[in-house]
Amino acid sequence: MQPIRKRYFPALAEFVRSGKETSLYKASELGVEMGGIHPEDVIAIHEECMQDIVANVDSDEAIRLYNRSFIFLIELMVSFRFQSGPVQDAEQRFTEMREMLFHSNRSFEMVKNKYENVLQHMDSGIALFDSEGILSFINVKMADLLDIPRKTLIGCNLRELLLHQQLTISTKRIILRLYREMFLRRSRYFEFQDKDGKHLLVTVTYGDQLDGDFLFSVKDVSDFKMIEQTALQNDKLAMLGRISAAIAHEIRNPLTSIRGFIQLLRPLLLQLGKEEYARIILAEIDRANDIIYEFLNSSKPSAPMKRAFSMNKLIQEVVLLTESEALMRNCQIQVESYEDDTDVMVSIDVKQIKQVILNVMKNSLDAIEAREEGRRGRIDVVTRSDGQYAEITLKDNGKGMDRATMSRLFDPFFTTKEAGTGLGLSVSYKIVRNHGGSIRVDSTEGSGTSFIIYLPLAE
Predict the structure, then answer these.
(1) Could you please report the per-residue DSSP string of 329-388?
(2) What is the pLDDT of residues 104-162, one digit of tens each?
(3) 28, 162, 333, 394: which could join 79 in a potential S-S bond, CB 3.0 to 4.6 Å?
(4) Closest by CA position to 57, among listed 139, 137, 115, 125
């Protein structure tokens, strides 16, 4: 049987891939040559060859190849039954052929169902439109993304899909954007954010690759975007560190000299009635020194000196440092713990983590001050532990942020304040990362902002 298989495989592969009728002559020839082989062995050879052919192709392609293979098998079996064995009546011959093809078709259905089952349970949404724009297949994930039952979608065209009563307005807008990008501009990839803030990547395979069909896949790439943003943020901080280390000291030295000479000239300026000039120059030099100090800090926190420290004590000390300023700004600070009076110990560099929390507190106070008048400010400090990390949440009722601001919040030099340097949060981000923790932010315009800081527990 091995020599037969060696001839069967290339003949079958040529036909299922090309679909040319000339390839069927080889099926007839093989049918004559296989006259002495049992019919079940013929089917077994066919199935074995098909499994090899579809082993490295996509599921949709596999189903198409299996469909074609039955034409080849029918041609072969007709020749096989009429050229082999003792003469039998025609009715018995066709009965046997029908039974063998039925068994083969059942095998095909099992393979087809297996591939469909794989498609249905993929973590990517899949939708297949035919050349007429009719939705012919959609898997469970895609139906979940649209939030519509699958059975009501099959057979819809794009217009009917957009008019679907259960489709939300935001989803309709996204579909129209996809249509503009992928059909009018012929883009193969399109990325967007849904209403929950998830990053979704849409990929389309055009009709010239799928016999006129259009295949859409949607995948949640939020985790990849987070990794990408973390890598980009680390690159920015590394660049900032190199810049600050290279120039900060060189700038501070001449500023110190200038400040000294201005102080020497101050009595002379006082006699001329220009003491205000000296005051302004000294104030600006001090401001420049503060900026350079933050530059230096941005490159320093690379190796924290960790020790076990009480999380409750850390929060108490920070609140004591900010309470008076909060009262002056008509703001209340409320501390809440979910640890049932258990003293949770964290492994931190106390000075650095204090700097982080103070930075966030200061930003919260500024956001509260910038909100609409008439509401009293409030900052809730909530602490809890999950057994591996301590979680510190600082939630304010300030003016909040839009998504564009949130996406750049930890970028060096990015600030929304007139007198801000844009370095405080980028430094805080680096400090927390160097501690093996993480920091994330959640905000809604007009409703406030929450910063969540995760720090490793002490062993």
Answers:
(1) TTEEEEEEESSTT---EEEE-HHHHHHHHHHHHHHHHHHHHTS-TTS-EEEEEEEEE-SS
(2) 555 555 555 655 666 666 778 888 887 777 887 788 788 888 888 777 777 788 788 88
(3) 28
(4) 115
The pLDDT tens digits for 338-360 are 766 567 899 998 888 988 998 89
How much is the pTM?
0.45
Cβ distance 95 to 102 under 8 Å?
Answer: no
Tokens representing residue 444 in the block? 């809604």
| Domain at 125-220: CATH code | 3.30.450.20
Question: CB-based contacts of 158: which residues, under 8 Å, 6+ apart?
Answer: 129, 133, 175, 179
Distances (CA, A) of 430 to 92, 269, 303: 81, 45, 11
Q: In what helix (H) or strand (E) does residue 73 lie, and over which residues does it extend? A: helix 59-83
Domain boundaries, the chain: 2-120, 125-220, 225-299, 307-456
Q: Tell me the CATH class for 307-456.
A: alpha beta
Whether 405 and 367 have beta carbons less than 8 Å apart is answered as: no
Give the position of tokens 């400010």: 377
Query: Would you call 201 helix, strand, or coil by DSSP?
Result: strand
- Phi (first) and psi of residue 125, to 5 degrees: -75, 135
Alpha-carbon distance 181 to 192, whole Å?
12
**H or E stretch including 234?**
helix 222-271
Token duo for residue 283 = 């104030």
Token pair for residue 111? Answer: 């393979």
